[in-house]
Specification:
homodimer; four-stranded antiparallel β-sheet; elongated; 10 helices; 2 domains
Chain lengths: 267, 267
């Protein structure tokens, strides 16, 4: 981590997942975790996710709230050719512009379908519509592009396409301080170590964040709590990890570096 | 489905997932899909999900927005004994009441820890705190209860505990019309069928909802789009499924009942 990163402010992001199928439970979302990890590696903190249905007002309101509150907004879903794909109309409405054929995207898809001898009909042309002023994002999987509109990045919901689009977006983003994390796993229950976690976190006064994650176990012995210490300050991270490790041992605990898959019954 | 269900209005729900670990990508959420499915089976539509960090203002604001907008709100995460478990303080603040030891919950946990010869210390006592006026929700996995506060149901984040608490909550909820769904899978691309989906949905004027989900395929042949027709009106559902099936065959497509796992390349 270099000095620029150390002193730069937090860069924040939100994600808007658009799709009835996630809310009904038909589909398990596979994009939130991927985005959270990829942004984190680049010093961008995913701070909020919203999942909304294919309802215009809900999408427009969410976009306008999130794009003002966070540095970046990433959407997934709703950019295909069918009637339930209303993301572009909604983004256009949120920005108060028209949703029109993008000259480059339109030609790209027209040529693509011509080369396959497939009719470039009205439904397929919808995939070449973007809010006026949008910049296209490449889709190497299925051709129909995503796009960026100001600080809002619009991606497909199909995970393989989303990941391909994100790969093209990531180099364009400006990250802040990269938050590094260190995991310790212990056999001590949360209820015993809670006050010490709080004390150590308080000593570093906002520089570190300790998360405590009990494992879901059916057995009664073994490593039962993962402690994740996170900081963008490597020195603070290192010192606090050492302090925590010493405290856990002082309390009679076993401690291992990293996470251990076991399960917890009570705190 | 009986007449009461047919004519009852939509019952709506939102979910608030509280936890830095989901946003950072460290943990894959496993509760959203389960809640969406279980509510749907009881005629309650999950209409929005928000995932927020362990930040008081974010949690309080989300709770107050969602509990006014939806019939039910379900939260997961942040009710353990450690410093990062701040859900109860936040719910209390959202309702403008104190977060105090719940008489029944306090005795329950005091007796439980006494029986295990484990100190019922301040950290563990935190798990017996609820907003004043809360009704406890049983936790048969790890004892520390969830609770209900007006229309807000507060559950643990560990999936096995969340599911156990939800099992106790579901019989208490009043559902509306149960939305049934029927899946058709076809080898026709979305771009070809898009206009017909829209026409059929329009004929039923709000009574049915058709979702179109392309499969992520690497091969070029096979079944590539799942169409999910949803309705709380069984007659409308049945007629629209038949109409859609006939239209797909008329367009030269193969159609199968249900979903087929294949993958799509372009629309």
């Amino acid at each position: 981590m270099n000095m620029t990163q150390k002193t730069s402010p937090t860069v924040s992001a939100a994600m808007l997942v658009i799709g009835n199928e996630i809310l009904s439970g038909r589909t398990q979302d596979a994009n939130i975790q991927h985005l959270g990890i990829e942004l984190g590696l680049r010093g961008i903190q995913l701070q909020e996710v919203r999942i909304v249905a294919d309802i215009e007002k809900d999408i427009v309101d969410a976009i306008n709230t999130l794009r003002q509150r966070y540095n970046y907004v990433f959407t997934t879903g709703g950019i295909g050719p069918t009637h339930d794909d209303i993301t572009s109309e909604c983004i256009a409405k949120a920005f108060g512009v028209a949703n029109t054929p993008h000259p480059i995207g339109f030609k790209l898809l027209a040529d693509f379908y011509a080369s396959k001898d497939i009719e470039f009909n009205a439904a397929r042309q919808r995939m070449a519509h973007t809010p006026e002023g949008a910049t296209l994002i490449k889709n190497e999987v299925s051709m129909a592009p995503g796009y960026c509109m100001d600080n809002v990045y619009v991606m497909a919901g199909v995970p393989r396409i989303m990941r391909n689009m994100l790969d093209g977006i990531l180099p364009l983003l400006k990250g802040g301080a990269v938050v590094k994390s260190h995991a310790l796993t212990t056999d001590l229950p949360e209820g015993l170590i809670a006050e010490h976690l709080k004390s150590i976190q308080n000593v570093f006064d906002g520089k570190i964040d300790i998360g405590s994650y009990p494992k879901d176990r059916k057995v009664k012995k073994g490593y039962i709590v993962s402690l994740i210490i996170r900081s963008s300050d490597e020195e603070a991270l290192s010192i606090s990890v050492n302090q925590l490790q010493e405290k856990l041992i002082e309390l009679g605990g076993k401690v291992v570096d990293g996470e251990v898959e076991e399960e917890v019954l009570f705190a």
